[in-house]
Amino acid sequence: MMMQNKFKAALLAAALLMSSGAAMAEQNFWQWLGNFSRQKGVQPVDNKTYSDECGSCHYAYPPGLLPSKSWAKLLDEKALNDHFGENASLDKDTLKTIYDYAMDNAAEKSWYKRSRKIALATEDGDAPIRITEVSYIKRKHHDIPEKMIKGNKDVKSLSYCNACHTKADKGIFDSDTVSIPNYPDWD
User: Fold this and answer.
1) How many domains does the chain have?
2) Out of 1-5, 90-94, 101-105, which region has the weakest mean confidence (pLDDT)?
3) pLDDT of amino acid 40
4) Mean pLDDT over the full length of the chain
5) What's the pLDDT score for residue 185?
6) 98-118 in b/e burial notation, b at 16+ Cβ within 10 A?
């Protein structure tokens, strides 16, 4: 009986240590915990300028999918002249609106759970300029066969989030809302 209690105590101590590590990793964990507006997923895009400008060429990624250091690289005036091979330059006012929106809603500034996980995954090292470079996102998609993504004419790449995440526009990226085109039975 005493051995069983020691084992339970050791197990409880290990669980507390593991959870405190996660808690310490959260920037101002107690503020996050006490905030009742924290939610799952990622804050959906709610800025018309951002949505219209970015969404005119590709899926308008919610800013919470990348940290601010990534947005600073991506939304640099010179960087936009060669935005993944395209000229995406913007006038100064539009760029400021988009830059400020992305920076204010970047992963590490969000109360959304998935954004917080992305913030943790990107806090060290270089700033990823593609969401497909974020280790958290790579890990969440590692078990999907390549034929369902690159080999799928209706998906092509992980960067087309909304091809499979049916509620991406609402900031919901959980597995319950995934529907991979041309693979209706995949689970």
Assistant:
1) 1
2) 1-5
3) 85
4) 86
5) 83
6) bbebbbebbbbbbebebbbbb
User: CA 110 to CA 90: how far, in whole Å?
Assistant: 26
Is residue 99 a contact partner of residue 75, using CB atoms and an 8 Å limit? yes
Residue 22: inside a domain: no
4 is a domain residue: no
pLDDT single digits (tens) 20-69: 444 444 446 666 666 666 688 999 999 999 999 999 999 999 999 999 99
Report if residue 34 sits inside a domain. no
Q: What is the pTM of this model?
A: 0.78
Q: Calculate Rg over the CA atoms of the chain.
A: 19
One-letter identity of residue 163: A
Q: Tell me whether residue 16 is in a domain.
A: no
Q: Which domain holds residue 131?
A: 48-177
DSSP class of residue 144?
A: S
Distance CA 143, CA 61 (A): 23
Kindly state the greatest CA–CA separation across the chain. Answer: 73
How far apart CA 161 and CA 177 sit, in angstroms, is 12
Following DSSP, what letter does each residue of 54-100 receive, concatenated?
HHTTS----GGGS-HHHHHHHT-HHHHHTBTTB-----HHHHHHHHH
